[in-house]
Every structure is written in structure tokens, then in C-alpha cells.
Design a protein that fits this description.
The protein is an alpha/beta fold. It has twelve helices and 15 strands. The longest helix has 18 residues, at 290-307. The protein is globular. It starts with 13 loop residues before the first strand and ends in a 7-residue tail after the last helix. Inosinic acid binds next to strand 11.
Length: 340
């Protein structure tokens, strides 16, 4: 047993200190981020491989906005390949999720043949021998020609191991997702920002993808400043036209379903049985086209970089100064006008 009493910080525990800036316009700010073997993306946003977030429509729209989507794997190989093919014939990049169970390599090869630009080994607890074996098979099959993302992890040791096992990018964050109940169900996890800070000191080449609990462009800027190369988001995109699923007409207005992939509902739908339930299913307000959501996030990120006097994400990471805020500061930090 080993107790670590140092505080683990979450997004609301910190703020970035505004800094001297010579940036005349936010259009001077470059929010681009590159992935090995792929082009530079102009928006450092990746949509989550979840069945209520990223299908063909979402992947196309995120790509159009400058980011990239990862097609979820809760379908047949043929269905996922058809989506990858349709997207890539339109000229745009797309990632595709795979698991580590039976048939994962067959799925990976089929996706690569059908144009997937990169593969994502999508496992809840990525620091695991099954991921090590999967990464070895993928590297033996594809060499260095295909970018391989893997995760999720929460510690530096896990980040380094996945990088050493062959991951070109690593999803960092366990237990922080908006629809996640892993910490309640298992008692395990680390606040996502803390995991990003911890993993950012890695001397490995792998990219760091901050994943889980990102609620607004301010959280995105904090994650990037703390060392993330990209952020992965689910809830911020949930409820938009481009998510898979119907619009529900309820007494409270239009809604769409957003659910964790380890929720009872998702497990029942895709596996026909339920094991450890580590996610929830929710209806969220319908938000309209995702294009507007992504536009607003892009504007917020650019503004965030300019407050740190940074023209690029690399410059932001060099200049960023974090302070901790008290609970009174957290209240002041969100809008708090009172009706009179
Ligand atoms: P959000 O952006 O806060 O909504 O978090 C999305 C992230 O939650 C995904 O990218 C996954 O890493 C994670 N996630 C998805 N489904 C589940 C689940 O059922 N339980 C725990 N985490 C999940």
C-alpha cells in the first residue's frame, strides 16, 4: 500500500495567467497540430470513437473544420470499412477504432485497405498486456507506415510503456469522461489534467491526446498548455445533427442520446450482455449543426493562445503559467450574475 497525498489537479483547480502579447489579431494564431505520417491538422480536436458521437457524418464535419474523427468500432467490419471508404473518397483524413479481442487484426487490415488514415486501439484500461500484444501485432503488420494511437492511460509509466510498445500517440485520461462512472464503480482514476501534466514530461516521441472531462474551449486551452498535442472530445459534440441517432421530441424540447460505451445500454446493444457497468446513458439537448460548435471552439482556442501571448500550441506550452485557484476563485471564474 502506498498513499500519495499530493493533490491531483483538475481543470477547475487551475487557471492560466494572462501574459504580455503582441498578437494584433486572433487570426495570427496557429492552432495546428501534426500527427506522424499524417498532414498537420489546423484544429487540435479529435472526436471520440463512441457510437453516439463519431460515425460518417461527424467524421466528415470534424475533418472539414480542421480536426479529425475516429470511427467507432461497434459495428461490423464491413460497416466500419464502408464509412472509412466514403470519407476518404471525399479526400478527407479519418481514424478508425479497433479493439484487442478476437479478429482485431483482421479489422485493422480491412480498415487500412479501405482508407483509414490511422488506427486507434480503443481500450478502457490501456496499460495492459493485451494492448502490448495488439501493438506488437500491429507494428509487425504495418511497420511504421500507419499511425497507431492507443489508450487509455493515466500515468507516465503507462504512457512510456505504450510508446515503447509502438503507439505513435497515446490517449491520456481515465475516469474523467462526462458519461463515465469508472471512478465510482472501481475507485480508480486520476483527474485528466493531472494525468496530462504527469505524462507531458515523457521523453518518448508519442503524441499526447488529452481525453475525458473537457467541457469548453477553456479546458481545451488548459489541456494544450499542460502538454497535450490534441484533445479528444465527446460531450462537447453530443446532441448535434452529425451524431449517430435520432432526434427525440420530449416535453423539455428536442434531445439526442449520448452514452458511455461501458454503459448498460451500450453493452446490451453491442454485446447482448452486461459486465461491469462503467458508464451512463443520457439524453442531452439537441444542438443543431456541429459546424457551429466546432467554429466556437476554434475561436475560443485561438483567443486562449493569445491571452498567453502565444502564436502556436508549442509556444503556448513554453509560455504557459498555471496558478491554482480556490473554491471562491472557481465560483468567480464562471458567470455568476444574480437576478435582482
Ligand atoms: P467527454 O468528452 O467528457 O464526454 O469524455 C469522452 C471520453 O470518455 C471518451 O473519449 C472515452 O475516453 C471515455 N468514455 C467513453 N465511454 C465511456 C464509458 O462508458 N465509461 C468511461 N469512460 C468512457
Amino acid at each position: 500500500m502506498n498513499f500519495i497525498f499530493a493533490p491531483s489537479l483538475s481543470f477547475d483547480d487551475v487557471l492560466l495567467v494572462p501574459q504580455y502579447s503582441e498578437i494584433a489579431s486572433r487570426s495570427e494564431v496557429d492552432t495546428g497540430s501534426a500527427m506522424k505520417n499524417l498532414k498537420k491538422f489546423s484544429l487540435p480536436i479529435i472526436s471520440s470513437p463512441m457510437d453516439t458521437i463519431t460515425g460518417e457524418d461527424m467524421a466528415c464535419s470534424v475533418s472539414r473544420a480542421g480536426g479529425v474523427g475516429i470511427l467507432h468500432r461497434y459495428n461490423t467490419i464491413e460497416e466500419q470499412c464502408a464509412m472509412a471508404r466514403n470519407i476518404t473518397t471525399k479526400g478527407q483524413d479519418v481514424g478508425a477504432a479497433i479493439g484487442v479481442g478476437d479478429g482485431f487484426l483482421e479489422r485493422a487490415k480491412a480498415l487500412a485497405r479501405n482508407g483509414a488514415s490511422f488506427l486507434c486501439v480503443d481500450v478502457a484500461h490501456g496499460h495492459h498486456s493485451s494492448v502490448k500484444r495488439a501493438l506488437k501485432s500491429l507494428k509487425d503488420t504495418f511497420g511504421d507506415s500507419t499511425h497507431i494511437m492507443a489508450g487509455n492511460v493515466a500515468t507516465l509509466a503507462a504512457f512510456n510503456d505504450l510508446a515503447d510498445w509502438g503507439a505513435d500517440s497515446v490517449r491520456v485520461g481515465i475516469g474523467g469522461g462526462s458519461i463515465c462512472s469508472t471512478r465510482v464503480q472501481t475507485g480508480h482514476g486520476i483527474p485528466t489534467l493531472q494525468s496530462v501534466v504527469d505524462c507531458s514530461v515523457s521523453d518518448r516521441d508519442a503524441l499526447l491526446i488529452a481525453d475525458g472531462g473537457i467541457r469548453n474551449s477553456g479546458d481545451i486551452v488548459k489541456a494544450l498548455a499542460a502538454g497535450a498535442d490534441f484533445v479528444m472530445i465527446g460531450s462537447l459534440l453530443a446532441g448535434t445533427d452529425e451524431t449517430p441517432g435520432e432526434i427525440l421530441n420530449t416535453k423539455e424540447g428536442k434531445k439526442k442520446v449520448y452514452r458511455g460505451m461501458a454503459s448498460k445500454e451500450a453493452q446490451t446493444a453491442w454485446r447482448g450482455r452486461v459486465s461491469s457497468i462503467e458508464g451512463v446513458s443520457h439524453v442531452v439537448p439537441y444542438k443543431g449543426p456541429v459546424e457551429e460548435v466546432l467554429h466556437d471552439l476554434g475561436v475560443g482556442i485561438r483567443s486562449g493562445l493569445s491571452y498567453s501571448g502565444a502564436r502556436s500550441i508549442t509556444e503556448l506550452q513554453g509560455k504557459a503559467r498555471f496558478i491554482r485557484q480556490t473554491s471562491a476563485g472557481t465560483v468567480e471564474s464562471s458567470t455568476h450574475i444574480k437576478a435582482r
